[in-house]
Amino acid sequence: MTTNTRNNISNNTPLWMCLHFTKLPLEVFLRSNTSEENAGDHAVVIDKKQPVVITEKQRVFHMNDMAKEVGIQIGNSMDTTYTFSNNVLCFERDDDRETSTLAHLAQWAYQFTPKVSIRSPDCLLLDIGGCLKLFKGLNNLIVSIEQGLHKLGYQALIATNTTPLSALIIARAHATNLIHTDHDKLENSIGQLSVQNLQAEEKIIIALKQMGITNLHTLLGLPAEGISRRLGTYFNDYLLRLKGEKADPQKIINPNARFLSSINFLFDITNLNSLIFPIKRLLGELSDFLKGRQLTINHFTWHLSHRKSPYSDSLHKKHFKKTFSISLASPINETRVFLALTQLKLDQINDVKEVDSITLIANRFYPLSADSKSLFRDSYTPSRDFNEHNSEHNDQLLNILNAKLGSGQYFGLSQSDDHRPEKAWKKVNLSKKHHWSPEKQDSLLRPSFLLTTPKALAMSGDMPHLAGQLTLLKGPERIDYGWWDETENKPLTRDYYIASQKDGTLYWIFKYITMDQWYLHGIFS
Amino acid sequence: MSNKRSTLEKLIMSNDIWRASSINADVHNGIPSTYSLLDQHLYGGGWPQDGLTELLLNKLGIGELRLLTPALAKLSQEQNRWLLWVSPPHIPYAPALAKAGIDLSKILIVNTTSHVDMLWVLEKALSSKSCSAVLAWPDFLSAEKASTEKKSTEKARTKQIPQLEKHLRRLQIASKEGQCLGILFRNNSAAKNASPAELRIQLQAQVAVSEHSRLKVKVLKRKGGWPSDFLDIEFNDHLNLMTPDFSELQINNHSDSLPDCLSPKDAQKNAPIDTYSSHHLNPHL
Questions:
Q1: Complex ipTM, two decimals?
Q2: Contact B85/B233 with Cβ under 8 angstroms?
């Protein structure tokens, strides 16, 4: 198969791809540990030489290469298995997990084509006829799918053909060298396959063999009427769909409304820093998910859990869970930012001793608003120009502040429509896109710093004292205090003065008209 | 080859390379402080656009912000970046800032609970390219109650951030990287120590002689020039304008048995002429 012929398929031809996850029963358990070359010494990596088997009903159902090497066979009992090797790692097959993983992979594949169909237990069918141009040819598409799966920690056999069923049987027959190119030669491409590979009832296969028909080439050459009469209309119908002579509608998945992905670890992770690699992987998945759907997020949640933590009290004995969320100032899709913020949060966690599973959840999405940048902007704007298009940067600062300090620690300022000094300003929550009230300009002199609570001043005689006598400069400015505000039960009127110290320092002080006590309320910095 | 060129270009573009050919271009790139006497003594005719600027003072309230507000107002209006206040000693008062022309929507205030956090925020913010100016009061931390009293000022002085000096270089580099004006309000006692800051100015309170408040400043360290003597800065405000003392006037008026409702001006008009000496006489009367 040459590159040229692979890439020359015209866009009009229907083309189906089958992803066959041959190692799925294993991978649902081992995912956190496979293909993690870059993990270095941080991640807990299973010794690649350790045999791993998956059992179903006490019999070996699936195993890894190492198990095969030591001589374990499918169908062996556990006792037999342990005679071959005493460090065999054994898992009970988890059907539910396989099904949900396959569904998850189908969602992942949605980034390549909208037409993805699940074929249980271990196959996905993708209609790739329409997306070849986008990925610049079949070769590139296959490479990007393979790389993507590798990053996720899965392996798949990839087969393509013009009908879904033909792609499926090629993949299931592990005959991926039979990648199809030309519609007319469908019979040729799958002709060599044995009838055994057909998805038909056992008795039909036996009947075919008794007729002397062993490969598909001969079978597909037979007249349809005869097959229909001898082997039943269902089988005939199947062959027609296999050949593409009859429409074969597939059940297409719906894109998920939320993102949820988790990684389970075989061993407890005690050092939170080693979570970075699984976190990177999950964030990569999230990024692909968002990219495929042209979405952005401004909030996502991490769950760290441990099945039974000895440190937790009896109430939460069964399951220990630590949840933390990351909020962003504006919806984006940038793995780099997500990772940096997650790391900031992770650094603050100190009450987690062990983790055996990590989950990433994102629920609310926002459409990607692609603001096209001016083509010639760079040519005339100097590098020091911060006049516009800077909101992205500005939001990033808010993001890191939020992740490090929490949202209560930073705020914006706004004026508010009240004449009382304490209420003439207000904090603005910057994570909500707030509208600042129109700025009024009045001629009143106000200090640039306001004390949160007025401070009683020492007195010498009638006059206030602050490290020396204060001289009253300007005043009084009489301010009525909220007798109309029920919460404030101090219907007192204040006289405000600007006062100066001997050296020229200026303060804003007041006294209640009914009392002689002076208070410091502001500083003219 | 192209690689080499790009590294060379990068080098030229970077902020810390000064080229003789740009001597004229650089001269007017400061942010004008609007006080011409001060501008004359600053490199580039104003506050530096990036790097640390240290303002050294003994206590708050002497006009340290008034000195800065025109520049801050200009930054807030011209750039779509934050004006970040890191742990200000008191509440920055919105009406006053708005009156000084600062765009309030650019103001971001961060309160930190520890020195470590404050330094972290400072460094992140300075280098983030998302702030036009970052203001911090490292020596006036948690001085909410203390800063105004002399006794406690000394207490606040001893509360200086341990080894702030060690972090200054990092902050200076960060602010260069983020093209951000970093302003540290520090205690006068820091003047004797060396600092990597771009500009260091000592501030001293001064008694006003007219209605405008005043401040004495002394440039301790600057780029491309020598330290200055103390300069007299007069602010364009009317903070020092004393209101006439009504109570005294009233007493006088009372003795002249004038109606209580009259304002001093009216009182002047209606006062019997013979109570004024001749040079007070209005020719138009």
A1: 0.72
A2: no
> Which of these CATH numbers, 3.40.50.300, 3.30.1330.10, 3.50.50.60, 3.40.50.2300, describes B27-234?
3.40.50.300
Residue A80, Ramachandran bin (φ over 0: left; ψ between -120 and 50: alpha; else beta): alpha
Residue A343's CB is within 10 A of a number of other CB atoms, namely: 14
What confidence category does residue A386 fall into, taking pLDDT thresholds of 50, 70 and 90?
Answer: low
The count of domains in chain A is: 3
- Residue A416: inside a domain, yes or no? no
Of the partner residues A397, A441, A507, the one whose CB lies closest to the CB of residue B98: A441
Judge whether B125 is closer than 8 Å to chain A, CB to CB: yes
Residue of chain B minimizing CA distance to A383: B13
- Classify burial at A496, counting beta carbons within 10 Å of its beta carbon; exposed 0-12, middle 13-18, buried 19 or more: buried
Tokens of B218: 């002394």
Angle between helical axes of A276-293 and A138-152 (0-180°, round to 10): 140
Nearest to B108 among A384, A387, A430 (CB): A430
With CA atoms as reference, the chain A residue closest to B247 would be: A476
Q: Compute CA distances B232 → A84, B40, B204, B235, whole Å.
A: 93, 13, 10, 10
The answer to whether the CB of B187 falls within 8 A of the CB of B160 is yes
Cβ within 8 Å, pair A413-B97: yes
- Interface contact B130-A394, CB threshold 8 A: yes
Q: How far apart are CA B209 and CA B240, in angstroms?
A: 8
Structural domain of residue A9, as residue ranges? 3-50+88-243
Mean pLDDT by 10 residues, chain B (285 residues): 68 70 58 86 85 89 89 89 90 88 89 86 88 89 44 45 77 88 90 88 85 87 85 82 60 44 43 40 42
Task: Indicate the pairing of strand B181-187 with strand A295-306.
Answer: unpaired
Last residue in a domain, options A243, A273, A297:
A243
Domain boundaries, chain B: 27-234, 246-272
Of B61, B69, B113, the CB nearest to A507: B61
Maximum CA extent, chain A:
123
Token pair belonging to A115: 């037409």
Considering the domain boundaries, does residue A496 fall inside one? yes
